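User: Could you check the structure of this?
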Amino acid sequence: MSETENRDPRRHLPLHPNDFEILLSLNESEKHGYRIIRDIEQRTEGAIRLGTSTLYAAIRRLLAAGILEDAGDKALEASGGPPRRYYRISDLGSELLRLEALRLQEVAAAARKRILETEASG
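Assistant: Sure, the predicted structure tokens are below.
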């Protein structure tokens, strides 16, 4: 596979819902794993709760694909705890997130149309 094909965000579509949520979380700012888990849980009002093994398996996959980047270890200033590994969305990941959001919007519009047509005919 050529470098151009490897960097084409469309080859990663459709995204797994967990991957979409991780990218959405990191689109705001870089975060460490626990903060990603909490952000997703809060934003989805508990509808999506990622376990650590699920999160880190996804992060490894997204890092390997160039969708995420390792932002390094940073100390937690508030707690004085040990440093945590931070992640950020790459340019490829940002474009992939945008394309997936558009794809989901189109899917939802098609579903609404079909539902309304079914209701009107029934």
